[in-house]
Write a structure and sequence with these properties.
There is one protein chain. By secondary structure, the chain is α/β, with parallel strands linked by helices. The chain has helices at 31-39, 43-50, 87-100, 123-137, 150-153, 169-194, 202-212, 225-230, 234-240, 294-309, 354-367, 382-387, 399-411, 423-426, 445-454, 489-498; strands spanning 2-7, 17-23, 60-64, 73-80, 108-111, 158-163, 218-223, 248-255, 264-268, 270-274, 314-324, 336-338, 344-346, 373-377, 392-396, 416-418, 436-437, 462-466, 472-473, 483-484. Helix 6 runs antiparallel to helix 10, helix 9 runs antiparallel to helix 11 (354-367) and helix 10 crosses helix 16 (489-498). The chain is elongated and about 80 Å long. 54% of the residues are buried. The protein binds ligand BES, manganese (II) ion and zinc ion (ZN). Ligand BES is lined by residues 274, 288, 292, 349, 351-354, 378-382, 439, 445, 468.
C-alpha cells in the first residue's frame, strides 16, 4: 500500500473516500470534520441532529457528496468516548475503515489522523497506528482465487493522510512510514503462513527468506542437512527423517552495531507441515498444520522490518525448517537422538516435534554468539486451552527480558501472558534412558514444552513465546485478519529496536 502524509485541507482533497471522525457526545464537529461539514452545507451536523450519527465506537456513516467536494464519498468514523480512545483503537479503526472501503471503484482513501486532536494522543503514535491499521486491515490472501469476482479483487492501494499544520508533516510522515514497514513485514508473515504446504516446503521457505535477505544490510546463511549433521544437530534432523523434503536451517544476520555476536536472536519454529509423524494426528483439522511454520515466518518477516528501520543493534534470526512426515525413514517413538549441545532426548511422541527443531536452533544461536534468546513457536495445543486467542503464552528464565517482551507486545497492541516455570515442572521430562524425553504428559503441557527448551539456552536470558492460540484467526477483527493473524511480528521488531538504546 502506498501511504503518504501531505499538508492540506481534507475538505478539498481528491480521493475516492475522505475519512473524518467524531467522538461520542460531540454535537457540533470542529477541526477537519467541521471543515468537511461546512463544505457539505452542514450535512454532518444535520445527521447528528437526526441522531443518525452519534460518534459511537465502530459507527461508520457514508455520506455521498454529489459534487459538493472533490471526493464523491465522506465516511464519518465514530471514535466512541474520548477517555476510552487510545492508539490501539486508532489501529483497529483504521483497519476496519480499510476493509469497509474494499469495493470496486475505491482504491484511494484520504484521512485525517484520528485521536491527535481532542483525543489528546501523541500525533506521531497515532499516525503510525493509522498506517499500520490500514495496511494490516486491507490484507487478503487471494493468490488462488483465480476466478474471484470484482468485490473480492477490490483493494485499497493508496492512503493519503492529510495534515493541516505544515510543521507537523515531516514527523507524521516518518511515523506513518514506520507503520507501513511494520505492517508490510506482518503481511509477509501472513502470506507465508497462509501458503499451502505443497507450495511452501522448507526449500521454498528458505527461498522466500533469501528474497528478504536481498536487503543490502542483511546476510543469509542456509545450513543443509549435511552441515547440520556435522554440527551434531540430531534433534532437528530426527524430525526431517520422515520427509522426502530436505530440512533447511535458515539464518539471517543484521549487524547494525557491528559488535561481537548478537544482542538478540529470534528463533522461529519452521514446520512447513505437521502431520504428527508416526504419532500421526487425527484427520479433522489437520489442514491447519500448514501454518506450523508461523514462528519461522514471523522471525524472517521481522528481519525485513529490522533491515528497513536499521537500528544500531545486532540481530539474528534463525528458522529451523522441515516437514514432520511419517515416511519410511521416520523417527519412531522410543528412538533416542542427541542435540547439538550433547543432550540426549528420548522421543516418545513424534508430534512433539517443534521443541526438537527449536533445541538445535537455540544451540546454534548460542554458537553464533546471541546474548538474548527469544523463540517463537506454534508449540502446543495446550496453550489455546489455557489462554484461548486473547494473548500468547510467555515462558522465561529471565524477568528483565520477559518485561521487555511484554512491553514490546503491548506497543504492538498485543498481549503476552506469563506462565510459571517452577523447576518441579522439569521433572515431568525425566526419561529412563536419556537426559530428557520430549513429552511431559498432559498436565501443564505448554510449560513442560518450555522446560524442554530451557535445556538448550545455555543459561542465557531467554523468552519462549507459544503462539499456537493466536496464529490463526477465524474472522477479521480490527487489525487481525482471517487466516494467518500476523500476531507477534511487530512485537518482535519493537523488541529488536529496543536493543539499539543499550
Ligand atoms: N504444531 C503442534 C501444536 C499446535 C496444535 C499448533 C494446534 C496449533 C494448533 C505441535 O507440534 C504439537 O503437535 N504439539 C502436541 C504436543 C504433544 C504431543 C505433547 C500437542 O499440542 O498436542
Ligand atoms: Mn506436532
Ligand atoms: Zn507442530
Amino acid at each position: 500500500m502506498q501511504i503518504a502524509v501531505v499538508q492540506g485541507d481534507i475538505s478539498t482533497t481528491e480521493a475516492d473516500v475522505v475519512v473524518v471522525n467524531l467522538f461520542e457526545g460531540v454535537t457540533s464537529p470542529g477541526g477537519a470534520t467541521g471543515a468537511v461539514d461546512r463544505a457539505l452545507d452542514g450535512a454532518i451536523s444535520k445527521l447528528i441532529g437526526l441522531g443518525d450519527i452519534r460518534g459511537k465506537a465502530g459507527e461508520r456513516t457514508t455520506i455521498h457528496t454529489f459534487g459538493k467536494i472533490a471526493a464523491p464519498r465522506v465516511v464519518v468514523a465514530g471514535l466512541g468516548k474520548a477517555e476510552d480512545f487510545d492508539v490501539d483503537a486508532v489501529r483497529n479503526l483504521s483497519a476496519e475503515v480499510a476493509r469497509a472501503c474494499r469495493k470496486p471503484g475505491v482504491t484511494h482513501v484520504a484521512t485525517i489522523v484520528h485521536g491527535a486532536g481532542i483525543g489528546g494522543l501523541d500525533p506521531e503514535a497515532c499516525a503510525q497506528a493509522l498506517a499500520e491499521g490500514a495496511a494490516l486491515g486491507a490484507y487478503q490472501f487471494l493468490r488462488y482465487k483465480v476466478e474471484s469476482d470484482d468485490d473480492d479483487k477490490a483493494a485499497l492501494e493508496r492512503l493519503t493522510v492529510v495534515e493541516h499544520d505544515a510543521g507537523k508533516v515531516a514527523g507524521l510522515a516518518a511515523a506513518a512510514e514506520r507503520g507501513r514497514i511494520l505492517a508490510e513485514a506482518t503481511n509477509l508473515a501472513r502470506d507465508l503462513a497462509n501458503e499451502p504446504a505443497n507450495n511452501l516446503n522448507p526449500t521454498d521457505l528458505a527461498a522466500r527468506a533469501a528474497t528478504v535477505a536481498e536487503a543490502p544490510n542483511l546476510e543469509l546463511e542456509v545450513l543443509e542437512e549435511a552441515e547440520m549433521e556435522a554440527k551434531g544437530m540430531g534433534s532437528l534432523l530426527s524430525v526431517a527423517r520422515g520427509s522426502v523434503q530436505p530440512a533447511k536451517l535458515v539464518c539471517i544476520s543484521y549487524k547494525g552495531r557491528g559488535g561481537e555476536g548478537y544482542d538478540l536472536a529470534l528463533v522461529g519454529k519452521g514446520i512447513t507441515f505437521d502431520t504428527g509423524g508416526i504419532s500421526i494426528k487425527p484427520a479433522q483439522g489437520m489442514e491447519a498444520m500448514k501454518a506450523d511454520m508461523t514462528g519461522a515466518a514471523s522471525v524472517i518477516a521481522a528481519m525485513q522490518a529490522v533491515a528497513a528501520l536499521a537500528p544500531k543493534a545486532d540481530i539474528l534470526a534463525i528458522a529451523p525448517c522441515t516437514e514432520n512426515m511419517p515416511g519410511g525413514n521416520a523417527t519412531r517413538p522410543g528412538d533416542v537422538v542427541s542435540a547439538m549441545n550433547g543432550t540426549t532426548i528420548e522421543i516418545l511422541n513424534t508430534d512433539a516435534e517443534g521443541r526438537l527443531v527449536l533445541a538445535d536452533g537455540l544451540c546454534y544461536a548460542r554458537e553464533l554468539g546471541a546474548r538474548h534468546l527469544v523463540d517463537v513457536a506454534t508449540l502446543t495445543g495446550a496453550i489455546s486451552v489455557a489462554l484461548g486467542d486473547q494473548c500468547y503464552g510467555l515462558m522465561t528464565n529471565d524477568d528483565t527480558l520477559a518485561k521487555r517482551v511484554e512491553s514490546a507486545a503491548e506497543a504492538a497492541g498485543e498481549r503476552a501472558w506469563r506462565l510459571p516455570m517452577f523447576k518441579e515442572y522439569g521433572e515431568q521430562l525425566k526419561s529412563n534412558v536419556s537426559v530428557i524425553k520430549n513429552v511431559g504428559g498432559r498436565p501443564a503441557g505448554s510449560i513442560t514444552a518450555a522446560k524442554f527448551l530451557e535445556h538448550f539456552v545455555d543459561g542465557k536470558p531467554w523468552v519462549h513465546l507459544d503462539i499456537a492460540g493466536v496464529d490463526m484467526a477465524s474472522k477479521d477483527k480490527g487489525w487481525v485478519t482471517k487466516g494467518a493473524s500476523g500476531q507477534v511480528v511487530r512485537a518482535l521488531v519493537n523488541l529488536a529496536l529496543g536493543f539499539a538504546d543499550e
